[in-house]
Amino acid sequence: MKKRVITLLSLFMIASLLAAACGGGGSAGPSVIKIATQSPLSGGQSAIGVDIKNGAELALEQLKKPLEDMGFKVELAPYDDQANPDTGVANAKNIVADPAVLCVVGHYNSGVQIPSSEVYHASNLANVSPANTNPKVTDRGYLEVSRIVGRDDVQGVVAAQFAISKGMKSAYVIHDKTAYGQGIAEFFKREAEKGGMQVLGFEGTEEKANFDAILAPMLSANPDVVFFGGIYDQASVLFKQAREKGYMGMLLSDDGYDSPEAINIGGPSLLEGGGLYYTTVAGPAKLYPGTAKFQQDFKAKYGADPKPFAAQGYDAMALCLKGIENAAKEAGNKLPTREAVAKAIRALKDFPGITGTINFNAKGDLVTAKYFVIQVVSADPAMWNDNKIDQTLDIAPPE
Amino acid sequence: MRRLLNATVLIEILRPLGQIAVFVAGAGLILSALMLGMAVLLRGSTVDATTMKNYGVDLFTYTLVNLPQVLIDGVTIGFVYAAIALGYTMVYGVLEFINFAHSEIFAIGAFVGVEVLIALDNSGRLDGIPYTMAYFWLFLAVLAAMVAAGATAVAMERIAYRPLRGAPRLVPLISAIGVSFFLQDAIRLIESLTTGQFHRIIPTFGNFDQQISLASLYIVGTKIDLVMQVKSVIVIVSAIVMVVGLNYLVNATKLGKAIRSVAQDRVTANLMGINVNRIIAMTFLIGGTLGGAAGVLFALKFTRIDPFVGFFPGLKAFTAAVLGGIGNITGALLGGLVLGMLETFSGSYLSVFTMGAFGAEYKDILAFAILILVLIFRPSGLLGEQVGQKA
Predict the structure, then answer these.
(1) Least confident interval from A41-45, A288-292, B2-6, B355-359
(2) Residue extents of the structural domains in chain B
(3) Which residues of B lie closer than 8 Å to A, measured between beta carbons?
(4) Architecture of domain B2-377
């Protein structure tokens, strides 16, 4: 009996040794580099989140050649953060635990990026943000975190100045209580008051459907403009109910509003009266001179026009790849450390992205970022990319 | 004998109607008086001055001017909560078990109704149709939702609850939470496979979005137009029909008698020749169909739905059922109305009365704080009876 056990055990030993040998043989092949993406791939904000991933995926396919020539195998590791901080952080822990991951393209929501990037920071893992606009994203001064879009403290100011330039005298500010929405709403409020506008109300809400209670005081205040700081899935329902209740003033929101789904939810009544505007840090892809080829390739691969932030997803991935390439060269064509990659990305100068030439300042913000004010002109979601550009501004981040 | 029967029928229809009138008027008056009283107390304070600065009127006028609209909004959402609460209360009344998956039954109703309407819209059947046809299609959508939601509820009972009958009380509760998650993700899966979308928007047709002007009032020199959307009227009328119908069914029909007897004593009811399993399935069917109809009404009123749409209204409706006295149909109605009004009142006035320190975001906290207070003094709910725990 005992003998049989020993035989079995030794058989196991031999099997596992063989397996180990095979594993060892595997590692002698091309070493794998993974680049993770994190964005909402399911749920209410997935329309944008999926296209961030798709943009990054396209960039990986088109730009991985230099790294492959160096003998690396480059893979995409897409993660779904569900626009939820908890999920984002849990994913981030999985990502840093995988030593093959050298860079993260990530997050659509600032409220998810901020806690998740704490995890990246602790592991020196580079994170290029294609869409997060909250000041705190870069104000923590992490070497790992760089972003290729503007900031809310500028965007909120742009929105307020735009409203003032249109002759608006009073505003009612509503936000979604997230780091992103509340942040931008506060910057809007501050600048509006500075510019002599009367801010009649400042409300936060997590409500998704029944805005009666918020709208009653708003309607009796009857402001010239209603500003919503947050994401389209909430903003459009609120705007629609406000119009149904007879509010005819201007509706203004932020880059979280930038999705064709917004007008699908809201319907044509939003365009009546004072009209519907939003500020954004990422205009439609066609606004950027470098994106003609990207638009064609994107449509060919995914069968639809790129949604907002898809081009930023592409550029974020391009930065990751270039950073890894430079770091690998420095390490003598060997797999670079995460820290070296983070440094290499930050050190890139005049990087030719499709959304413009990218230069980072010491904090990881763009040296000058573009801001747009866009008027929605059609109730047809397919026409979203043809919305009218009211203003385009190049502004440096505040010190 | 026949005349007596007719009298019962009439009473069972009129009684809930009277209760509704009393509840609406009572809750509305108490809350209005409270608000106006506070406004009077705060006259001349900084709150008053801030209101004057922001809105150009003093606090009392502001409160008074907004009151009618707040009341209308509060009653509307109150009836939505009441309609959902009926499903919780029905099942609890019979099984003493909280069917947490009822919020997903509600969501299924909303999705089926909206998908039917979207399909009609895509086939062009909703373009420029006369109002009578619009109402017909809406009725059809509600009917489809009721069938789907009712069927799901019965299937749910058969699969997830019946095998656990007789198990400790926590077991079916956990099963209900599991069913709830399962159904949420099932809706999500089906929607993403078929339409690829997360949000579904109810098509715009008929005259549902129009505003009806009820009256123009002149209060302290300000003209107030009392307006109400057609769809709010539809929501209220349908909810009233649901409450009255359910009340009639439970109190004046043979089936109702059977349901009540099963609720009272399952074993004895069984001995009396009542098929308990069938009655319990019927209870789920009734609760489910009502929940499904409420889902479509919710979608009509608030236009947008997603697979998690049931969660909050479900939670609120459950609270309403507890507030009113769970297991009691009239209680569900009262609880829904009180909660809806509390919520709308606190949402609309909180920021003015606190000078913006607490915004509408705190409406639920205030509403639930009051709820806790009520339950401290009346643990079995506003209309709940003190009954011994059933084994």
Answers:
(1) B2-6
(2) 2-377
(3) 54-55, 62, 65-66, 69-70, 73, 76-77, 188, 192, 198-199, 201, 204, 209, 211, 227, 229, 298, 301-304, 306, 309, 312-313, 343-344, 346-349, 351-352, 356, 359-361, 363
(4) Orthogonal Bundle (1.10)
Maximum average pLDDT range among A18-22, A328-332, B364-368: A328-332
pLDDT digits (tens, 9 = 90+) for A334-355: 899 999 999 999 999 999 999 9
Mean pLDDT of A307-331: 93
Best of B55, B346, B348, B365 to disrupt the A interface (most A CBs within 10 Å) is B348
Is B28 a residue whose pLDDT tops 60? yes
What is the DSSP secondary structure assignment for residue A197, as one 8-state letter?
A: -
Reported ipTM: the value is 0.76
pLDDT per residue as tens digits for the range B262-297: 999 999 999 999 999 999 999 999 999 999 999 999
Ordered DSSP codes for A17-81 = HHHHHHHHHHHTSPEEEEEEEEE--SSTTHHHHHHHHHHHHHHHHHH-HHHHHTTEEEEEEEEE-
CB atoms within 10 A of CB B123: 9
Exposed / middle / buried, residue B9 (Cβ in 10 Å: 0-12, 13-18, 19+): middle
**Nearest 5 degrees, angle CA A378-CA A382-CA A385?**
75
For each of the domains in chain A, give its residue range(s) and CATH number, in order of start: 31-149+287-367 (3.40.50.2300), 152-280+372-395 (3.40.50.2300)
Residue A21 has pLDDT above 60, yes or no: no
SS3 of chain B: CHHHHHHHHHHHHHHHHHHHHHHHHHHHHHHHHHHHHHHHHCCCCHHHHHHHHHHCCCHHHHHHHHHHHHHHHHHHHHHHHHHHHHHHHHHHHHHCCCCCCHHHHHHHHHHHHHHHHHHHHHCCCCCCCCHHHHHHHHHHHHHHHHHHHHHHHHHHHHHHHHHHCCCCCHHHHHHHHHHHHHHHHHHHHHHHHHCCCCCEECCCCCCCCCEEEEEEEEECCEEEEEEEEHHHHHHHHHHHHHHHHHHHHHHHCHHHHHHHHHHHCHHHHHHCCCCHHHHHHHHHHHHHHHHHHHHHHHHHHHCEECCCCCHHHHHHHHHHHHHHCCCCHHHHHHHHHHHHHHHHHHHHHHHHHCCCCCCHHHHHHHHHHHHHHHHHHCCCCCCCCCCCCCC
Contact assignment for A216 to B201 by CB distance below 8 Å: no
Q: How confident is the model at residue A6 (pLDDT cuts 50, 70, 90)?
A: low
Best CA proximity match to B356, nearest among B46, B32, B37, B34 = B46
pLDDT in tens, B174-214: 999 999 999 999 999 998 888 878 888 888 888 888 888 87
Range with the lowest mean pLDDT among A2-11, A116-125, B97-106, B136-145?
A2-11
Judged by CB atoms closer than 8 Å, whether chains meet at B348 and A206 is answered as no
